[in-house]
Amino acid sequence: MSMNQIFTNISIGNKEVDLVISLVVRFVTSTFGSLFGIGLASVFLNLQYGQPAAIRNLFYCFSENADKSVRMRAFLTAGEMLCLLPVQILIYFTKEGQTLARLPLILPVGAVCFLLYELWTLTFSLANYLFLDFPEMEPSRILRASRQIMAGNRIRLFLLILRSLPLHLLGIYHNLNYSVRTT
Q1: How far is CA 118 from each of CA 84, 103, 115, rounded to the nearest angstrom?
Q2: Which of 57, 103, 132, 166 lies 20 to 30 Å from 183 when distance is taken between CA atoms?
Q3: How many CB atoms are closer than 10 A to CB 146?
Q4: What is the 3-state secondary structure (H, E, C) of 115-145?
């Protein structure tokens, strides 16, 4: 069970307050967790440039430019959460047993939210790498540069991600098959 699941399942009785608390906890944990994404990008860049990669690279954001990285990742996490917020609210306030009745509303809203989320993440997909390449730049300039670079390349990146989908599915199948055989 992840930290998000542990903290978002805490209930104080009022659905609106519970939703706000779960969103705040999800925002904080997602922002903190995404800082390790910058560290992972640091490992990849070190390998690309023939430099030694070490575990300490994963903690790059906590030692170098911590305030800038937190501001940038908080903005990106907030955008991701806002893209998915309508469908989360719709599902959260769907009463038990009414899910099938509300499915004709949940599916299109979910599809639109998913498309907005993908557009957001593809637009700013280079932010971590730009942050590492240009640590002196302000987060707003890094985000602007990522948006400009990806302006004509979002579809190409999306298709590249789709091309790797069979490999991911094969990995999932292999892991499921292995876990079934070992139990």
Answers
A1: 10, 22, 5
A2: 166
A3: 22
A4: HHHHHHHHHCCCHHHHHHHCCCCCHHHHHHH
Reference 64, options 32, 42, 83; nearest CA is 42
Residues 6 or more apart in contact with residue 35 via CB below 8 angstroms: 61, 62, 69, 70, 73
Interhelix angle for 139-150 vs 66-92, to 10°?
A: 60
What is the block-wise mean pLDDT of the chain (183 residues), using blocks of 10 residues? 52 77 92 91 91 89 87 95 92 78 86 93 93 92 96 91 88 79 67
Residue showing tokens 């190409």: 156
According to the model, what pLDDT value does residue 11 have? Answer: 60
Decide: helix, strand or coil at residue 183.
coil
Query: Which ranges of the chain would DSSP assign to H, the alpha helix?
Result: 3-8, 15-48, 60-63, 66-92, 99-123, 127-133, 139-150, 154-163, 165-182
Determine contact, residues 151/131, Cβ cutoff 8 Å: no
